[in-house]
Amino acid sequence: MKELRVLDSRVSRMAVALAAVATVAVVASVSASAQRSAPTAGHAKVKAVAFFGFAAANSFAQATWAGVKQTAAKNNVTAKFFDPNFNAQTQVSQIQDAITTGRYQAFVIQANDGNAVIPAIKQALKAHISVVAEFTPVGSNYGTIKPPVAGMTFVGEAPVWNGTSLAKLGIQACKGLNPCNVAYLEGFKSLPLDNARTEAVKKQLGTASNVKLVADVEGGYTQASGLKAAQDALQAHPDINVIIGSSQAIEGAQQAVKAAGKQGTIKLIGNGGSCQAVAGVRNGTWFATYIIAEKSSGAKAAQFAIDAANGKKVPLSFDTRQLQNPLGTKATLGSFKAQYCD
Length: 342
Known about the structure:
By secondary structure, this protein is of the alpha/beta class.
């Protein structure tokens, strides 16, 4: 009996020891799991952010890039501009290549084609890369800023809103004229975004009985293309009263108007808050410009991308009209300072 009691005591002590070892192992496992699921305090996961802009030669994209770089520096993150030179398929390939490298934890995408980038965005999200689309809505619904791909964020505004506002400025410029002949210089007829904006411009202009859209031509996003478009429109319609287009195109149109001896009689309205556009409104050579605080928009997009990659909660969308009153007339510009120059 004594031997059995001794044996039983030894077994009991062994069971207690084994239980203690098991408890330590479980605690260690839980601790290790917790460390994997949450970043160490003070150490962010994001090391690099990739920016996929319209084109490196585009002043608007450079304003966005300035904002992205500013935010990246503030967060001790490196940033790289991938330049597709306005080519949608090149941009898609660049996004896919950046995913493959594994170097980037956050993407800011200023899409040349909001539909073409969808598969690449889904691929990035699957690779646990945060994605924020900036300026160009993703998908084919240009009347909303709600992104169609779950898990991503959009920073910007709907092109339909932009087009409607441009037309409202046009109607304002036409006050007191009947008829008031308007020429609209569309960006690129090949881009769905530009087509949606153009349709919104036409629809809104049509609500004013005194306004007549006499020319709708491709004005592009350079002074040269705007100059050519305005020359063609003025040759076909010498009685034009208002010209609306991208800020770059309107800079070219201004040259055509001056050459035709009509400076001061034709009202110019730009789309974009460049140095030249804001100066034109302030000195009276332009009637108005649609203000886009693009550097601030780029900075906001990059911050959302970095925060999301670091596990922080970010909104599904952000309306950039909150950054600045977009209707930039001489009466409403206030102290706004342009964030980029063409």
